[in-house]
Write a structure and sequence with these properties.
The structure is a single chain. The protein has 469 residues and is mainly alpha-helical. Helix 10 runs antiparallel to helix 14.
């Protein structure tokens, strides 16, 4: 048992009062009020982040055509893997830092955040360099055809060099919310999204820069968002800010140990993003063999639309995460369970609403990206409602995985992620089309999410029986 002095507690209380500008107290504020205070700006920020992605699809589809849309979808797994690394460090470092803050260890929490930012940035810089060196091989590996290759390569060359900034924007949200500034975190998504929309229009429709313009508009938006994160974390008056990390052998060993633990906690979040990359990669592979490039273009519309569902549900999980982690650190299980139930109900309700809207308005959604003259239009209109049938199950899975991570249960979180994003997904993608033809491809993702819900329910039932026994 670790014992903290009254002096440490008073320092933490004072700094929290002075610096947590949005008046947030994770330990005593009523859970519904606390959850709403975090949820509203987080969801708004995530919605703008989704708009960031969707806008690219709309401008690329309307300005450059369905082949360009398909080419961007071919390269999308690179972005998802990169974002996954950012989120992995963001979740891992924020969970560890939350628990340290609940114990009054402020300096340790700062060190955790500094280590996470430095190591993840170095790793992703190396990843970007390797992708650029072997860009053509990477494009073929991701499923590009000869027809789509020039467009895919052009997008890679102007997007990949900025991957470090997009990952920093993803991870920085966690640190800023933990510091009690969800409204600033929201603005870190809103401002880049607005800049991206403006630059997309200028670069594609006015300058006629094609794929280069689409990639550069996105990259510059992420760069500005990352600069806002760095500005916030550099301010000494904030509780969570960068601090000097020693470079001695002992310090490097401790850094390595901390990074390994953060990665273990955040691994399932990385796998959630990798699962989306797997969904895109496998879906592209199956669609191009059944329906050619038009099938990939239709599937890309679902993949562009999907981020808003993913990010809203992810925002629900992220809003609950600091509440769960902080109160888990203090041993208040009642507040932990209450916050989880509230997040789960919110997510399932949101998932049902998104499904209804998609089923009712799929032609309108598809028409945002491409005109009726493209063959991909009819494929997407008929397939999008099938794809959306899994939104409720997806919502439940994302929040449950976030719950496991927040209470340091990395193993069940990772197993659920592996099942939904890889094992069940790949099996469904390659077996359902044998029985249901093209409809089976669209239903592969919903089926994988449904089977994962069954696993999570079985896990909770087993834990309840073990506790009662």
């Amino acid at each position: 048992m670790v014992i903290f002095t009254q002096k440490e507690d008073n320092i933490f209380a004072t700094q929290k009062t002075e610096n947590m500008k949005d008046s947030i107290d994770f330990g005593s504020m009523e859970i519904p009020k606390l959850f709403r205070k975090l949820l509203i700006p987080t969801v708004l920020g995530m919605v703008f982040s989704a708009i960031f992605v969707i806008t690219d699809g709309i401008f690329v589809g309307k300005g450059l055509g369905s082949d360009a849309l398909a080419a961007v979808n071919i390269t999308a797994p690179l972005f998802m893997l990169n974002t996954g690394v950012g989120l992995m460090f963001g979740v891992g470092a924020s969970v560890v830092a939350s628990i340290h803050l609940s114990h009054g260890k402020i300096k340790t929490a700062r060190i955790n955040v500094t280590q996470a930012v430095a190591v993840s940035s170095l790793f992703l810089a190396l990843f970007s360099a390797l992708v650029l060196i072997y860009s053509e091989e990477v494009a073929y590996l991701l499923g590009s055809s000869e027809r789509l290759l020039p467009l895919a390569l052009e997008y890679i060359h102007w997007f990949v060099p900025f991957l470090v900034f997009s990952a920093l924007l993803s991870s920085g949200m966690f640190y800023i919310r933990l510091d009690g500034s969800p409204n600033y975190a929201m603005m870190c998504n809103v401002i880049p999204a607005i800049i991206n929309i403006i630059l997309d229009y200028i670069f594609i429709f006015i300058f006629n820069w094609g794929m280069m313009g689409a990639a550069l508009a996105t990259s510059l938006g992420y760069t500005i968002g990352a600069a806002m994160i760095l500005f916030y974390l550099s301010r000494k008056k904030n509780v969570i800010h960068f601090c000097r990390v020693k470079l001695s052998k002992k310090s490097m060993r401790l850094t390595l140990r901390n990074i390994k633990y953060m990665c273990r906690l955040g691994a399932s979040t990385f796998l959630c993003e990798a699962a989306i990359a797997c969904m895109m990669f496998t879906g592209n592979y199956v669609f191009i063999r059944h329906l050619g490039e038009d099938g990939v273009a239709a599937f890309s519309i679902a993949c562009y639309f999907f981020p808003i569902i993913f990010m809203v549900n992810n925002a629900i999980g992220q809003s609950a995460q600091p509440i769960l982690s902080y109160n888990f650190g203090t041993g208040d299980n009642n507040r932990v369970h209450y916050a989880f139930r509230l997040a789960l109900i919110t997510a399932v309700t949101t998932g049902a609403l998104f499904f209804l809207l998609t089923a009712l308005f799929s032609p309108h959604i598809v028409s945002l990206f491409i005109d009726k003259s493209y063959p991909a239009y009819d494929i997407a209109v008929s397939g999008l409602p099938l794809f959306a049938s899994g939104f409720v199950f997806f919502a439940a899975n994302i929040v449950s995985i976030s719950y496991f991570q927040s209470i340091e249960q990395a193993r069940p979180a990772m197993l659920a992620t592996l099942l939904r994003g890889f094992v069940f997904l790949i099996l469904c993608f390659f077996t359902l089309p044998l029985f249901l033809d093209v409809a089976g491809i669209w239903l592969a993702v919903p089926a994988a999410e449904f089977f994962t819900v069954l696993y999570i329910l079985a896990f909770f039932r087993y834990k309840r029986r073990s506790f009662q026994g």
